[in-house]
Inverse folding.
């Protein structure tokens, strides 16, 4: 798990550094998601980490660590935190990140395979929680609109996220043929019958994650042999049926 924790820590450090520099006025400005300010995005990441900490505590002991917050309760907490000053938001995020990393480092090796459930109901091993947390951080760092772009995503993160996303899309018969990330030296076979897509990994992921529109990608970053289909809501649950 060392490399997984290391990647999460690096992603979190970049995010917290960016958030630390925001002023009260800047956190009230719009994020790149409809209806969200930057404060909403920061609060969402921190409250999502709370949810991941609950899962890690369950995995460590096999016992639920108190009541689990519902999606509605998490949403309400995000709204409440989004009204707070920039310094409080930054301190809260840094604290949540530190607690998450400490919990990961302290997890007994044999407990990483313990199955936990996402709020949506799908199950996964505890180690997958760390990958979910990194995806949350990397994606919403872009959504903060503070100069961090998909092109800044680390290659190892992009490769993993493309693996996950394209595997899930293939299982759902999403109309994609062969997908090639030229810079990563990687290719994936789609469900067949769809367009063939070539491009840099970060551009592919940005499109599939809904962070770059298809029309922008087809003019430069991607080469396709037909119209790009509209990806479903992202992220998709992982394809492996952990039971």
């Amino acid at each position: 798990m060392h490399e997984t924790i290391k990647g999460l820590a690096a992603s979190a450090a970049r995010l917290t550094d960016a958030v630390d520099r925001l002023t009260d006025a800047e956190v009230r400005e719009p994020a790149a998601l409809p209806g969200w300010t930057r404060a909403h995005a920061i609060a969402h990441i921190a409250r999502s980490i709370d949810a991941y900490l609950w899962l890690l505590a369950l995995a460590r002991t096999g016992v639920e660590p108190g009541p689990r917050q519902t999606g509605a309760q998490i949403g309400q907490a995000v709204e409440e935190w989004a009204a707070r000053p920039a310094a409080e938001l930054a301190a809260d995020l840094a604290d949540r990140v530190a607690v998450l990393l400490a919990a990961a480092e302290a997890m007994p090796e044999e407990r990483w395979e313990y199955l936990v459930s996402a709020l949506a109901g799908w199950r996964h091993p505890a180690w997958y929680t760390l990958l979910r947390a990194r995806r949350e951080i990397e994606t919403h760092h872009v959504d903060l609109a503070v100069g961090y772009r998909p092109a800044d995503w680390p290659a190892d993160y992009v490769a993993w996220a493309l693996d996950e996303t394209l595997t899930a899309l293939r299982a759902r018969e999403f109309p994609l043929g062969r997908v090639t990330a030229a810079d990563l030296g990687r290719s994936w076979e789609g469900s067949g019958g769809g367009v063939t897509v070539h491009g840099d990994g970060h551009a592919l992921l940005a499109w599939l994650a809904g962070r770059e529109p298809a029309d922008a990608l087809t003019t430069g970053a991607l080469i396709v042999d037909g119209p790009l289909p509209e990806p479903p809501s992202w992220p998709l649950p992982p394809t492996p049926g952990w039971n």
About this structure: The mean pLDDT is 92. Strands lie at 115-117, 123-125, 176-181, 186-189, 195-199, 222-224. The CA atoms of residues 64 and 185 lie 43 Å apart.
